[in-house]
Amino acid sequence: MKMTTRLTIYLFLILLSPTLLAAKLPKAAAVPGGIAIIPLGIESASAPIVKYNDKRVMVAPDPEQKNHWLAITGIPLSARKGKHQLVVETNPKQRIVSFEIKDKKYKTQHVTIKNKRQVNPTGEDLKRIAKEQEEIIASLAQWSESDTVNTAFVIPAKGRLSSPFGLRRYFNKEPRQPHSGIDIAAPEGTPIVAPADGTVITTGDYFFNGNTVFIDHGQGLVTMYCHMSKITVKTGDKVKQGEQIGAIGQTGRVTGPHLHWAVSINDARIDPGLFFDDLQKIANAR
Questions:
Q1: How far apart are the first and last CA of the chain?
Q2: Residue 180 sits in the same domain as residue 208
Q3: 66-98: pLDDT as tens digits
Q4: Of the candidates 149, 200, 186, 138, which has an alpha carbon nearest to the alpha carbon of residue 283?
Q5: By CB neighbour count within 10 A (0-12 exposed, 13-18 middle, 19+ buried), where does 4 fall?
Q6: Please, which residues have CB within 8 angstroms of residue 152's CB and are 6 or more apart in sequence?
Q7: Does one domain contain both 196 and 260?
Q8: CB-based contacts of 15-24 (< 8 A; 24+ apart in sequence)
Q9: Pick from 56, 81, 101: which residue ends a domain?
Q10: Average pLDDT of span 276-283
Q11: Which domain holds residue 152?
């Protein structure tokens, strides 16, 4: 084999390596619903254990310093501006790394829901919702060890971005929780694909979310897909980036066919747009 051919193959394999894929980090935005990327300031051949609000935090190699690490920290929408702290375990001691969260104001959205039970559920509905919430909360808090995590996402569906992240929402003039994902509106049956490799945590048909899939991508990075017309994966399936997991629908609490896509890091729902250079342009591409 010629030297140039061997070099070409070698470079191709490097480009496919998980380590290099993991080097494309999401955009930093230290605001509620954002991501703080924090240098830990310690030198170690192995990744340290980091916690924020008592939850494990994703850790990635610092591309600028060998054997140094970055904490990829999801910030809850409920977080207050000001100084926050990470706890870094450096056996046998712990150290504190501080970072600042800035304030951010999100827009308000008013939505009219024709099905009144989807705004004010009955007693039986509330029992169902409570049971489902336990499963949803557990899925979004999933943690699995992984040496590398691919954060170079692809868009899970093509369509119009109908509702951005973080909206302060009112259903039939009644206040509800902020919008903890993004909505991609498209015709029913439009394919939904995995944005990165992962494992299906669970699937289900939920009162508000309709047909839903949860995918674990490793180190506390979990994605959720709601209102699907059909689901083509099952619990425990290994999925590859770009593999179809279902199709857009209008199940659950909806006003039309769309995908509600949520991204969770260390059990904090964060803006999926931080994983893309221009989410609006990518979503609308045909």
A1: 41
A2: yes
A3: 999 999 999 999 999 999 999 998 777 889 999
A4: 186
A5: exposed
A6: 21, 24, 196, 275
A7: yes
A8: 18/147, 18/148, 18/150, 19/61, 19/148, 21/148, 21/150, 21/151, 21/152, 22/60, 22/61, 22/148, 22/149, 22/150, 22/151, 23/60, 23/61, 23/63, 24/151, 24/152
A9: 101
A10: 80
A11: 108-284
Q: Which percentage of the chain shows pLDDT scores above 90?
A: 67
Residues 80 and 123 both lie in one domain: no
What does the alpha-carbon distance between residue 177 and residue 166 come to, in Å, rounded to a whole number? 9
Domain boundary pick from 60, 86, 101 = 101
* CATH code, domain carrying 71: 2.60.40.1590
The residues that bridge with 56 in the sheet, in sequence order, are 51
Asked if 272 contacts 279 with a C-beta cutoff of 8 angstroms, the reply is: yes
Q: Quick one: 148 and 224 in the same domain? A: yes
Of 58, 56, 63, the residue nearest 21 (C-alpha):
63
Asked if pLDDT for residue 16 goes beyond 50, the answer is: no
Examine the domain organization and report whether 12 and 130 are in the same domain. no
- Residues 6 or more apart from 239 whose CB is under 8 A from it? 194, 197, 198, 199, 200, 215, 233, 245
pLDDT band at 254 (very low <50, low <70, confident <90, very high): confident
Residue found under tokens 């919430």: 133
CA dihedral 174, 141, 165, 272 (to 10 degrees): -170
Domain count within the chain: 2
- Same domain assignment for residues 140 and 217: yes
Reported as half-sphere exposure (CB side, CA atoms, 13 A), residue 124 has a value of 0
What is this structure's pTM? 0.86
102: tokens are: 């800035």
Residue 136 shares a structural domain with residue 44: no
Query: Which residues have a Cβ under 8 Å from the Cβ of 237 and sit 6 or more positions away?
Result: 199, 200
Residues 129 and 250 placed together within one structural domain of the fold:
yes
